[in-house]
Amino acid sequence: AKKPTQQAAKPAKSAKPAKPAKAQSPQKKKSGVVKAKDKALKAKKNVVRGNHDKRNRKVRTSVHFRRPKTLKLPRAPKYPRKSVNKRNKLDQYCLIKYPLTTESAMKKIEDNNTLVFIVDKRANKPMIKMAVKKLYDIEVAKVNTLVRPDCEKKAYVRLASDFDALDVANKIGII
């Protein structure tokens, strides 16, 4: 009776090795899925727990505390603080007060091709040059200035060689 049971058991064993051969490939896939799942659970646990267990203190190398630089955004105003922009008070009409008509100024006009003006004290040479150019449509060679004892600024405006100071003086109405 023992022999038939052993024989019956043998065919069953021969049938089993065929099934595990098919079952091995799904086990590999399952093991990969299981590893990924474990990894994801571990990551989830770390995220939920946070970094509270591994706290590193900053090593301070100085006894002085320097406040850290923070973000400074540029200003974005909701409305302009000034309703109208400031007017330029030194335009060409305010810059040049009047031409001088003294004897020495007339001599400069005739001999040196130079016009003489009393100008605003705050005016500088480039400003005077531009003002004369705009007002009288003439080219200026150079400008010399001085401040008189009565605190007025005098400007000697030398005209370019292709302009005649006598003609310009007649046009202005000095002569």
Structural account:
The chain is α+β, with helices and mostly antiparallel strands and 175 residues long. The chain is built from five helices and four strands, in the order ααβαβαββα. The chain has helices at 2-49, 92-95, 103-112, 125-136, 165-172; strands at residues 96-99, 114-119, 140-147, 153-159. A four-stranded antiparallel β-sheet has the order 1-2-4-3. Strand 3 and strand 4 (153-159) form a beta hairpin. The longest helix has 48 residues, at 2-49.
Spell out the blueprint of helices and strands:
Elements: H1 2-49, H2 92-95, E1 96-99, H3 103-112, E2 114-119, H4 125-136, E3 140-147, E4 153-159, H5 165-172
Antiparallel strand pairs: 1-2, 2-4, 3-4
Main attributes of the structure:
175 residues; alpha+beta; single chain
Report the count of strand segments: 4
Q: Which geometry do the CA atoms define? A: rod-shaped
The percent of residues in helical segments reads 40-55%
Distance from N terminus to C terminus (CA atoms, Å) equals: 154 Å
Provide a count of the helices. 5
Biggest sheet: strand arrangement? 1-2-4-3
Q: What composes the largest sheet? A: 4 strands, antiparallel
Instruction: Give the DSSP E fraction (strand runs of 2 or more residues).
Output: 5-15%
> What does the oligomeric state look like here?
single chain
